[in-house]
Amino acid sequence: MKETQPTTCMRCAVGCGYLQTEADDDEHIVDVSGDPNHPTNGGVKCQRGVRETTNTRTDRLTQPLIRRGGSLQPTTWDTALGVAATRLVEAVRQNPDNVAVLGSGQQTNEAAYALGKVTRGAIGTQYYDANTTLCMASAVAAYYQAFGSDGPPPTYDDIPKANTHIVWGANPAVAHPVLYSWIMNSVTENDGELIVVDPVITTTAADADIHAQPDPGTDLALARAVLAAVIASGNVDEQFVDRHTKGYAEMVESLPTVDAAAETAGVAPNRVRDIASTLTVNTLIYWGMGVNQSIQGTGTARALIDLCLATGNVGPGSGPFSLTGQANSMGNRVCASKGTWPGHRAFGDSANRKIIADTWDVPFGRLPKSPGPGFIRIIDALARGNIDICWTVATNPVAGVPDSSRVETALEDTFLITQDTFRSDTINCADVVLPAATWGESTGTVMNMERRISRVTASADPPAKVRQDIDIIAAVGNRIHAGLFNSPPLDPTSVFDEIRELTAGTNADMFGITYDRLESERAVRWPAPSADTEGGYRYHDGGEWSFQTASGQARFSTETHTQVPEPVDSEYPLTLTTGRTDGVYNTGVRTRDDTDTERPTARIHPETIVQYLDSFERGQTVITSRRSQVIVDVSPNDDIPPGMVWLPIHNATINELTLSAVDPHSAEPNLKQCAVALLAPARQKMDTPHGAVSK
Q: Domain 4Fe-4S Mo/W bis-MGD-type: where (predicted)?
């Protein structure tokens, strides 16, 4: 056995520390245990993280591929990189915006930084984003609007100090099991309460002291109803509001009545008042994709922040805490030059652009002035034929983006370079495939949802013809702009040092965090401007508050509920929503293979099944939306409200049904609500792979 190495679980954004050891066999299976010295989890682990670290699947991409004669054929690295770079250079000569690049919250900080450097500094395109926008953009926009900076104010240290835990539009029992265990321990030890807001009786909701079930797409109305109830009860922290916030009077003026807003949300007014009453003690409000993935995701997240501000629940043991799904979503936002330059430097600021250009040694004028329109609108531009080349890295938009048939067509019609570890729906559209290393084979750092940076280490070698993400990116970048990087393979330490220096003095200062420090301390939170500092609760230092807004005060909001983007009607009378299933990761490429013909299973309330009984045959039905149809198996389930259809978000066919409308503030898509109908399955189409049906 090789020596055990500390590393970080890449399953979700909790950021648990693991100890991994390469096994003595030819499969490079990694033995994994919790790291008792890691400050995040202290040795606690979940079986999913262990299982997916040790089981890298056999269906790997093991060599570069290039499309010849309509099919992907093996090729050499020189050929694959040469073709990819040549096509990129040709497109850039015409216009940098002929190129789109789509990254991922699965990249290390170093790889994400390198991709941003190539995309912004060598190519110069505005059409760059990452799949983190599909998950976290609304929370990010809300934090910026309220506090002037990205990232949740609380840390994990605040969970045991809270008395009330409100989980809104999230299911951490399934998505973040280690963090959920901390929540439940806090509830038990503090004689506290767990409040869950979710249309569905999830695993988390089943543990709740209070469970509110709003109609899908009405979370903003419910949050505003709770705000109105707080104010009507007089449980406002007037001292905090007066000293440290702006816009309170305007927010109050914009509120509906409790009864009116509760009726809109489909929740009893007394249940609304019950929730409001729990905010009188230390309260943490967590939210997830059920809030963010909505056309009013930013407004709803702002309303949840407003609840914390109004009740004085901003400070140790309380506050607004968005739950992040992907392991390095936060690092992507800080390091990747996506929505901001590294360190959350404002994108349009000329001084920041000059610093970036000088550091990268690229022409100032090449850097785009706009961060771009966002992931979904980049897909829109591809669909309109406005972009010639797309390069995807560790992301699977064909499965993860709404109205996925349209996405697939758009990618098939462009020259697609795909860089990934496993075969995916997107790779089936690719012209060049660049195989990358996976967990346990990669070296770098990641950043969890509480801003803690930790190491990812390699205890196994990737297949012989597979390369590290960062080395692939550097090889492409150097072919576009000679000398952009040292010759691969790159030393991740030197890349991290470049990131550290660019973040020095910024809101996300990482200058005091080095690889040596991470080796001894395992994980360190930013801001950490020096080697002996570490970030704690944000905006709060020694009892003094200072938010990163122009006034130094936090800002209330006034957005009001509007109707859902696709209301039910006589033709499409049911509401489709999507959610996570236990044991499935992201778009499912680690837990299914390309020959898998298993149909997705829809959970439907028995009353709905009886109401539409003619639409079922042999335990199956066809779910149809205005965009597509999908054959599904059916599971009668009392946890799903009547009138709703629940489907797993991970199956590649589900997003053929979903709606591509986006939040106007964040450009995050509305994945949690659309109108559908049920049809009887055509007998001759029952064996269609993956359940897809053509209209």
A: 1-60
Q: What is the CATH number of the domain that holds 625?
A: 2.40.40.20
User: Which DSSP symbol is given to 554?
Assistant: E
pLDDT value of residue 23: 61
Q: Are residues 12 and 47 in the same domain?
A: yes
DSSP classification of residue 441: S
With contact defined as beta carbons under 8 Å apart, do 377 and 128 qualify? no
- pLDDT tens digit string along 45-96? 887 777 777 765 557 899 999 999 999 999 999 999 999 999 999 999 999 9
Q: Which domain holds residue 381?
A: 65-131+327-525
Task: Say whether 76 sits in a helix, a strand or coil.
Answer: coil
Burial class (CB in 10 A: 0-12, 13-18, 19+), 93: exposed
| CA 266 to centroid of chain Cα atoms | 28
Question: In 383-539, at which residue ranges do the beta strands (DSSP E only) sit?
Answer: 389-393, 415-420, 432-435, 444-447, 452-456, 523-525
* Domain containing residue 472: CATH number: 3.40.50.740
What value does the mean pLDDT of the chain take? 93
Q: Which of 287, 322, 357 is the last residue of a domain?
A: 322
CA distance 562 to 244: 30
Instruction: Answer yes or no: do 335 and 266 share one domain.
Output: no
CA 202 to chain centre: 20
- Kindly state the helix (H) or strand (E) to which residue 493 belongs, with its residue range: helix 492-503
Q: pLDDT value at position 588?
A: 54
pLDDT at residue 610 tops 70: yes
**Nearest to 580, CA basis, from 233, 289, 181:** 289
Vertex 510: Cα angle to 524 and 332 (nearest 5): 90
Helix (H) or strand (E) holding 223: helix 219-233
Structure tokens at 458: 């390699």
Q: Are residues 191 and 214 in the same domain?
A: yes
**What DSSP element (H or E) covers 193?**
strand 193-197
Residue 591 has a pLDDT of 54
As given in the structure block, the two tokens for residue 275 are 């929730």
Q: Residue holding tokens 């008792």?
A: 36
Smallest CA-to-CA distance from 645 within 586, 595, 577 is with 577
From the list 681, 683, 688, 690, the residue with the least C-alpha distance to 597 is 690
**Backbone angles phi and psi of 435, in degrees to 5:** -80, 135
**Alpha carbon of residue 662 to chain centroid:** 15
pLDDT attached to residue 204: 97
For strands 644-648 and 283-287, give the pairing: unpaired
498 is written with which tokens? 């470049």
The pLDDT assigned to 688 comes to 42
**pLDDT tens for each residue of 315-362:** 999 999 999 989 999 999 999 999 999 999 999 999 999 999 999 999
Helix (H, G, I), strand (E, B) or coil at 389: strand
Residue 543 placed within a domain: no
Residues with Cβ within 8 Å of 634's Cβ and at least 6 positions away in sequence, in order, are 601, 602, 604, 609, 616, 619, 620, 621
Q: CA-CA distance, 657 to 624, in Å (whole number)?
A: 7
Predicted pLDDT at 54? 72
Both tokens of 385, joined, read: 């034929």
Q: Are 521 and 657 part of one and the same domain? A: no
660: DSSP letter: -
**Would you mind telling me the total number of residues written for the chain in this entry?**
695
Count: domains in the chain? 4
* Same-domain pairing of 242 and 198: yes
Measuring CA to CA, how many Å separate 7 from each of 35, 452, 465, 522?
A: 8, 13, 24, 9
How many other CB atoms are found less than 10 A from the CB of residue 47?
9
In a domain, 554, yes or no: no
CA dist 622 and 475 (Å) reads 47
- The structure tokens listed for 302 are 């702002």
